[in-house]
Amino acid sequence: MPVVTLPDGSQRRFDHPVTVDEVAGDIGAGLRKAALAARVNGRLVDTSYVIADDANLAIVTDKDPEGLEVIRHSTAHLLAQAVKELFPDAQVTIGPVIEDGFYYDFAFKRPFTPEDLAAIEAKMTELARADEKVSRRVMPRDEAVRFFRNLGEIYKAEIIASIPDKEQISLYGQGNWVDLCRGPHVPSTGKLKAFKLTKVAGAYWRGDSRNEMLQRIYGTAWADKKQLDAYLTRLEEAEKRDHRRIGKELDLFHLQEEAPGAVFWHPKGWTVFQCLVAYMRERQGLAGYAEVSAPELMDASLWQQSGHLQTFGENMFLTKTPDERVYAIKPMNCPGHVQIFKHGLRSYRELPVRLAEFGKVHRYEPSGALHGLMRVRAFTQDDGHVFITEDQITAEAVAITQLILSIYRDFGFEEVAIKFADRPARRVGADDIWDRAEAALKAASDAAGIQYTLNKGEGAFYGPKLEFVLRDAIGRDWQCGTLQVDLNMPERLGAYYIDEHSARRTPVMLHRAIFGSLERFFAILLEHHAGRLPAWLSPVQAVVLSITDRQDEYVRKVTESLKNQGFRVEFDLRNEKVGFKIREHTLKRVPYLLVAGDKEVAANLLAVRTRSGKDLGAMPMETFAERLRIELESRGRQVLEG
RNA sequence: GCCGGGAUAGCUCAGCUGGUAGAGCAGCGCAUUCGUAAUGCGCGGGUCGUAGGUUCGAAUCCUAUUCCCGGCACCA
Question: Which of A27, A419, A431, A449 fits A467 for a cystine, CB–CB 3.0-4.6 Å?
């Protein structure tokens, strides 16, 4: 007879097998109503699950993260049920839970339209209102395959047929609709109260671009209307932070048809870009890197030798000159750096040799992949290559890791996830070389004391890598930095040094980038700060405003003086009300507005206002300059605006 | 690259079933000299992404094409 232990340690005895639902009812009517699923001995089950033996039980409600998952999963089923009722010819495939919602893929003779989406959502609401009971049953695999074949659901049948044949298949049904599913699901469709279909899109069957394309319907689902609305508001907020929108608003850059995936940097955007370069130049210099610059165009034979052309040639831009030579525009900087390393005879005494370049690379990305500054065809890497002996890998990798994390902190990114990407299917070099490279990178990661997750098969074609992923202000993740151990490229390109016994040795090459792509990092910064870049990165750090033309001379003088001190300052003498000027420059995200009216001129002061609307009072220009200087030098750690 | 949607003034967008393009903001001019997120009045501005086609007539319909957007696939 089962003894059920609840999360608080209390126990309940039953003299017969009981369902989760009954136990919940035994605890309280409110809990019974709120129960969506349960954990029995750690396993997630339906409320109809029968407990026959002693067990630990935790009721799952919409307050639990699992509860929300159950809701989303069940809403995906509701979507499929609605689609089948409205479009009986559509075939169901899969419908998993994703972040904030779910999707379901259908095979259908024509694409779903936005009107279809509205009709489907209305049908879903109707089915949820009907509060149909969701029931579970089990059948042997082969029977399940026959069952779905008979229904004409060939995709489902294919999925089930790929499950090992001894397994029992669970099916969930609601109304006259039934689907294969591991579950669990909500006890009845009435539990689904806050959902919305968001978009239709194409998606390949089984995620393989060689397969046919299905219709994917995305939706979001929440415990209640309030959560749903909060989510929709969050989407709107994210849209306002979109770097493409901010780039336009602040006149930072543009893209145009003749140069897909290549950026036209405007003066203000380029100012910020140059701030990033200057910052990195300083940090790298201190870390022992020497800056170089290698050609953007090199003979294709070099790329043949490096392995790029064979492995990733379809992503490279090639050009033929009138003399019939084929050149490749560099997609990476490493071969260039190897040429510089190779020039002259290197001694082991020189190692590590650390070369860095703000290298502009071009990659022919698939047209559908392009996305603002995040994914472009022409971009600038803060690329660096370190040539070392195998014994030096650990120490150097630890130093690089620390450098990367320290730099991210300067930009306000404290949360950094690290992934270890091991050998990919398309690669160069023998397996034993890969074994050594992966072991060395693992050892270095351990020595650096970092935690990482495995990103299987995602390494570079020449070596394993660590990927550094930033989390921004609204919780999105972006891969930026990378550290790669390469035991292949130096040998392929004939690089060597002379060791202490006068023998030729092939160096190990570490590839590393910190921003990754400057374009991308720039976009991440814009979105992270919603355009309000810290003053040290702002294209314009302050604007001096006049109230009437009586202050013109004073404003010009102050502006000139601040500019001479190295600040990025402009003035605004337009014949407009001060409120109008303040609004405009606030919208342009200028950190400080310095207002000069008759009072300030008389007292030789500036009234300082921040872009967040805070009044810092009137102060002499020298005071403002001093405080701003401290803010810039501390890279925003000591902030004037408070 | 694949599926779907889109492209109209500098920007955001309207323009129903074909009859020859419109708003707000921005810009320009004039007035206003003003104290912390929009002063008022007036004016100019578009071969409707590109190339073909159908038609008496095309922003609107058809075909092709480029780019953009949302996904998928890709991401050295």
Answer: A419
